Amino acid sequence: MSEDATSSAGLVLLECLVAGTSHRPNLQQYEPQLYVGQLLMLTREADSKYDDWAVQVHTHPATSAENVWLGYLPEGRNETVARLLDAGKRITARLNHKSWESDWLHLDIEVLLHE
């Protein structure tokens, strides 16, 4: 892999499951459009009344015609990412795995820091 390919892929900051997928409306209908390797967008929710470090996970405009809110980075594992987003750093995520477990969509992602 070339140096350019490595740097454009980003540094993996966190591997985690997306929290709250069972609370996102219409996710069951949208799920077939999600694919392993898909680029995802992270958005800071600084005014959350539940989590001071809330970070939403959305589909990315480069890989999806719709902006679909998939869930959140898990509470307790999101502070570093939230601080980096607040500081204006370029951070994305990538879908590593997806599967249904009863009515819960299991989305395993990598969070990536880009230069």
What do these coordinates show?
The chain is globular. It has helices at 3-9, 27-30, 79-86; strands at residues 11-17, 39-44, 55-59, 69-72, 90-101, 104-114. A hairpin with a 2-residue loop joins strand 5 (90-101) and strand 6. The protein has one domain (3-114): Alpha-Beta Plaits. 17% of the residues lie in helices and 39% in strands. It is an alpha+beta fold. Residues 1-7 have low confidence and may be disordered. It has a six-stranded antiparallel β-sheet with strand order 1-6-5-2-3-4, with helices on one face. Keywords: Hydrolase, Metal-binding. Residues 14-94 form the HIRAN domain. It comes from Hymenobacter saemangeumensis. This is HIRAN domain-containing protein.
